[in-house]
Amino acid sequence: MNWKSTVALLAGLAALGQAETSRRPNIVFILTDDQDWHMHSLDYMPLLQKYVINEGTLYDNHYCTVSVCCPSRVNLWTGRAAHSTNVTDLFPPYGGYPKFVREGLNEDWFPVWMQNAGYNTYYTGKLFNSHSIDNYNDPYVKGFNGSDFLLDPYTYEYYNAYMTRNGAPPVSYAGKYSVDVVAEKAYGFLDEATLHEEPFFLGIAPVACHSNVKFTPPLTFDTAFYAERHAHLFKDYKIPRVANFNPDVPSGTDWVRKLPQLNDTVIEYHDEFQRSRLRSLQAVDEMVEELIHKLEAKGILDNTYIFYTTDNGYHISQHRLSPGKECPYEEDVHIPLVVRGPGIPAGHTAGVISSHTDLSPTMLKIAGSKGSEKVELDGFPIPLTKEELASPESGEHVNIEFWGHALPEGKYGKIGDDPLPHFPGTDFKDLEISVRNNTYKTARVIGKGYNLMYTVWCSGDKEFYDLERDPHEMSNLLHKDHAHLQSSYQLAGRSFKRVLSRIDALLMVLKSCYGKECHEPWNTLHGSSKVKNLRQALDSEYDAFYDDQPRVSFSSCEMGYLKAAEGPQHVNKWDDEKHGVAPVNVDGKQQSFQYTGPIEWWT
């Protein structure tokens, strides 16, 4: 080879290397089902620890905004709050895949936006509830170059899955462990994605560690099923015996406080229930390692973001609850999120507040996409790099909401003294045995020196917990048993009354927010950037202003989002010139909500 050929070769290699390093990054997104944070499930996934947590950043204050599968997943993949998407349940009429389609979201959601940005998109595993063997092609899911979806009514049967590949008729995988099947599909899509020059997004959604559910009559909720190779693991594991584990003194909202204390037989079953969940996650853990090895072998690991999270959390025995989710307590809404990728600090814990509403905006920012052209997203990109994490633009609040039932799982599932019967069909008409008034709005506020949870239930119940002092949510300051604590309570030098008036007003904004105001709710109240957080809002200058706000309330307990049942929708706005309340404009009419009730409005 002469010197000219050598120079040309070196120049070509340099250009190739420059093109590879300038190529937009790939994204691999792993979404488990019902995985807990507070029972420390991440600690039992050593391969995830080795390859993602130790090499990436753990987001330790990450929340779902709806603590049940379908609404949470729609929230994640649209970047919009559930009250914005109007997908609020697992099944029609208020939720499920048919509702997702009916709301026009199939035309305008994350994979469509990524394709518009020049990405190839792939997905395997569970997508949405009520995406079934009967409607998988009515219409087809839009936005994916390649897909292999688990289908109802077999989604949660670990050894009896049905899947549709790229819209083809469903195929049975009876006898095969579905988590392993989804893993194999993911490896195949990864191979396919790397045949093309375009960057790719790959979503992977195994059902672990969800309960094994059979929808064919009689409906049954069993423990999570695991692969035989993991049957020997975790036999000594016990659910952490923290303060809210089967407490001697009842806690929680009205229907939770009525639950009987669990006996030894039930507790032993609950421990095994969680062991089964941990065993089911081992197949996911193995998949994480294999994905890393494949990305490394293809030379693209350093240019790939890996997200690992779950759709919602899970409770077992906390507050005396049977296995399940759907509540506003930390076990149900505080969930894992880990991210590894270019520019992300290794072995770091973020400390920022984030939610599922923020995940699509985060990945769109990575992809250089504008997202939807029709609607403004409610989420905001999560800080990823060392520089972003040093001065994050993320807020200190999370909006959490829920409509409908609370359903206990497992063979000892109970609501009060009524045993959980077998349901005669799959349409869930007999869910009267579950709690119907499990509709609520919650604000989580975590800032410097405070960590608060405030919930208003459709039943009229209210809860306020200071998790700095009460991390397990045992002392509800709005319940008569703990009301005496209000007199001595102070935050930033302000009384309980003053703190609660601010957080109720914050929840008033969040429960109906759209777009930017979901990220900057204090601006909606104050009309400027003068007040950016709870601490600033506690200034005594604003006391009369917050005393005069409408309050979060419901007129009835509905099974879905019906705005007419959800009380006032607008707050009074601060007027800098008048130093007080300015009437709000609602549908072109000037209105002013003047509070005339007793000063103890929260009791």
Automatic annotation (TrEMBL):
Annotated source species: Neohortaea acidophila
Annotated Sulfatase N-terminal domain residues: 25-368
Presence of the UniProt keyword Cytoplasm in the record: no
An example molecular function term from Gene Ontology annotations: N-acetylglucosamine-6-sulfatase activity
Modified residues (3-oxoalanine (Cys)): 69
Name the record gives this protein: Arylsulfatase
Record key words, sorted: Glycoprotein, Hydrolase, Signal
Post-translational modification: The conversion to 3-oxoalanine (also known as C-formylglycine, FGly), of a serine or cysteine residue in prokaryotes and of a cysteine residue in eukaryotes, is critical for catalytic activity.
Alphabetical list of InterPro entries matching this protein: Alkaline_phosphatase_core_sf, Arylsulfatase, Sulfatase_CS, Sulfatase_N
PANTHER family: N-ACETYLGLUCOSAMINE-6-SULFATASE FAMILY MEMBER, SD21168P
Keyword Endoplasmic reticulum among UniProt keywords: no
Signal peptide boundaries: 1-19
One example of a Gene Ontology biological process annotation: phenol-containing compound metabolic process
Family per record: Belongs to the sulfatase family.
EC number of this enzyme: 3.1.6.1
Pfam families to which the protein is assigned, alphabetical: Sulfatase
Reaction it catalyzes: an aryl sulfate + H2O = a phenol + sulfate + H(+)
